[in-house]
């Protein structure tokens, strides 16, 4: 009796991930280290000076971490309420932060007590930054005002109240100490000049603005709000340059690589997108476990630090050249050559007795059902695997046996709905179409009498019909394009001239003229 042959699952070619220089560059980070903070991480800022410590603002405190430390090297806890926007000065010596209690505090990085306290706002201060001359501080608050403060005298220099909603982001110019930009929940971006009494430029983002970023040249401004990341040309009066919509939820923060050629955006959808600043196409993507509130990139791109809503701080460090060599050198140990040739040349002797051990074959669940001729259960078992290759292989085997129609028949609403869901998801896949089209036709033949009795099945049949019709339209368009390409290729081929030598027919001379009184035109 012949043994049962298991169903052969065909191996389909898979398209590998396209390897680009960006893929190699951004994948060259170690596994992330994670630190649990006391609350949601709302701000991360790297010190401009080596060794590039970074300040993490979460809950009522600011922690300063070293580049490779798991424990904070410094902690500021002099906040009565939630702290916001801890930022380093360009010399790395001072740190400024806002607070929900409307007070702005200035700290010496080497000390603990606040050097200066700035009071004047009436609501929480979410935006702080130093001007390029290092002597002034920009603040933005939920009281709709943005203000400039003088550090030596602890006094307010100027105040602007042009926004009509919370100010949640802002940045200062690194080239001009008087220029700064703010973004608000009133959907606007405003460019201010401290020498002028009102804003000099206004741009409409059309969504509550969560983050702003200036390019190093400061000719371009990037804003994030809603699902959009927009780029503005400041040299053309704030003209919109690009609008990107690659996130599924609100974009919360922006960052720029050290060379200025890659833009990073993070969102509540748990993704970090990396854009090429030449064409603004996504070149890489990072996934995280929770919604992202803050993102920072080390000045030398050696670390990517992400803060999330669940209070987890994720740090990725770039691999060193030594670690790259170790990874490349770790290859799987393979058996030596003698293992493969052992016993191959052995010749049995005269008195040898051969003992054969039967090889036990382990059948898959669907093969066991096929062996017992339970065709419907075999189809259900293959469907439970959620692997389209297995399901299509079982359908193909049942069709070869001539029992596919019987396996598809006699199903209730739930089982039929599962089958239709599978067809909707895979019928237009060119790998599976030849088999699934046959199964679809059988299902329509079997269940056409019960159409209209189940709203769920009716909706799925309509979706399947629309899907097939759309695919047919695509195929027709592709055939038209193929015909156009054939015409173009045929027209581009070089033409070869054929020299034909006319034969001399009886009754004609070599010039093609009939020998006689009547003349004919040249036929050659």
Automatic annotation (TrEMBL):
InterPro entries: U3_snoRNA-assocProt_15_C, WD40/YVTN_repeat-like_dom_sf, WD40_repeat_CS, WD40_repeat_dom_sf, WD40_rpt
Entry GO CC: nucleolus
SMART domains with a match to the protein in the record: WD40
Domain U3 small nucleolar RNA-associated protein 15 C-terminal: 345-488
Superkingdom classification of source: Eukaryota
Species assigned in the record: Salmo trutta (Brown trout)
Gene3D superfamilies membership: YVTN repeat-like/Quinoprotein amine dehydrogenase
Location(s), subcellular: Nucleus, Nucleolus
Protein name: U3 small nucleolar RNA-associated protein 15 homolog
WD repeat boundaries on the chain: 118-159, 244-285
One GO term of the biological process aspect: rRNA processing
Lineage per the UniProt record: Eukaryota, Metazoa, Chordata, Craniata, Vertebrata
Biological role: Ribosome biogenesis factor. Involved in nucleolar processing of pre-18S ribosomal RNA. Required for optimal pre-ribosomal RNA transcription by RNA polymerase I. Part of the small subunit (SSU) processome, first precursor of the small eukaryotic ribosomal subunit. During the assembly of the SSU processome in the nucleolus, many ribosome biogenesis factors, an RNA chaperone and ribosomal proteins associate with the nascent pre-rRNA and work in concert to generate RNA folding, modifications, rearrangements and cleavage as well as targeted degradation of pre-ribosomal RNA by the RNA exosome.
Subunit structure: Part of the small subunit (SSU) processome, composed of more than 70 proteins and the RNA chaperone small nucleolar RNA (snoRNA) U3. May be a component of the proposed t-UTP subcomplex of the ribosomal small subunit (SSU) processome.
Keywords: Nucleus, Repeat, rRNA processing, WD repeat
One of the Pfam families matching this protein, by short name: WD40
């Amino acid at each position: 009796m012949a043994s049962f042959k298991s169903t052969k699952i065909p191996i389909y070619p898979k398209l590998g991930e396209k390897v680009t220089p960006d893929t190699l560059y951004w994948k060259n980070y170690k596994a992330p280290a994670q630190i649990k903070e006391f609350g949601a991480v709302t701000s991360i800022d790297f010190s401009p000076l080596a060794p590039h410590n970074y300040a993490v603002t979460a809950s009522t405190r600011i922690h300063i971490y070293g580049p490779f430390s798991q424990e904070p090297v410094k902690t500021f806890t002099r906040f009565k309420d939630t702290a916001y926007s801890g930022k380093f000065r360009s010399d790395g010596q001072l740190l400024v932060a806002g607070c929900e209690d409307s007070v702005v505090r200035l700290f010496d990085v080497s000390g603990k007590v606040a050097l200066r306290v700035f009071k004047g706002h009436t609501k929480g201060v979410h935006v702080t930054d130093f001007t390029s001359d290092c002597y002034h501080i920009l603040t933005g608050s939920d009281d709709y005002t943005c203000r400039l403060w003088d550090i030596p005298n602890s006094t307010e220099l100027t105040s602007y109240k042009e926004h009509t909603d919370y100010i949640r982001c802002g940045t200062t110019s690194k080239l001009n100490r008087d220029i700064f930009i703010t973004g608000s929940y009133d959907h606007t971006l405003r460019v201010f000049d401290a020498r002028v009494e009102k804003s000099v430029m206004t741009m409409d983002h059309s969504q509550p603005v969560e983050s702003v970023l200036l390019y190093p040249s400061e000719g371009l401004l990037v804003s994030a709000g809603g699902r959009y990341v927009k780029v503005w040309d400041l040299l053309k009066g704030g003209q919109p340059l690009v609008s990107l919509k690659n996130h599924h939820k609100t974009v919360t923060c922006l960052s720029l690589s050290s060379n200025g050629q890659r833009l990073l955006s993070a969102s509540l959808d748990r993704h970090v997108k990396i854009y090429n600043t030449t064409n603004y196409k996504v070149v890489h993507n990072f996934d995280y476990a929770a919604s992202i509130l803050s993102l920072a990139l080390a000045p030398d791109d050696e670390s990517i630090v992400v803060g999330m809503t669940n209070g987890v701080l994720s740090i990725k460090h770039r691999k060193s050249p030594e670690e790259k060599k170790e990874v490349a050198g770790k290859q799987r140990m393979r058996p030596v050559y003698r293992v493969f040739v052992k016993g191959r040349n052995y010749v049995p002797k005269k008195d040898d007795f051969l003992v054969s051990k039967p090889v036990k074959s382990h059948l898959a669940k669907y093969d066991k059902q096929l062996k017992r001729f339970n065709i419907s259960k075999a189809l259900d078992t293959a469907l439970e695997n959620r692997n389209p290759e297995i399901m299509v292989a079982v359908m193909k085997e049942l069709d070869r046996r001539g029992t596919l129609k019987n396996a598809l028949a006699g199903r209730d609403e739930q089982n039929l709905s599962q089958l239709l869901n599978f067809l909707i998801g895979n019928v237009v896949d060119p790998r599976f179409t030849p088999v699934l089209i046959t199964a679809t036709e059988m299902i329509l033949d079997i269940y056409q009498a019960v159409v209209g009795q189940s709203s769920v099945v009716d909706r799925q049949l309509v979706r399947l019909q629309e899907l097939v019709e759309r695919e047919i339209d695509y195929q027709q368009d592709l055939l038209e394009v193929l015909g156009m390409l054939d015409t173009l290729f045929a027209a581009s081929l070089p033409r070869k001239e054929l020299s034909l030598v006319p034969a001399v027919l009886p009754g004609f001379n070599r010039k093609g003229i009939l020998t006689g009184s009547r003349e004919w035109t040249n036929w050659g």
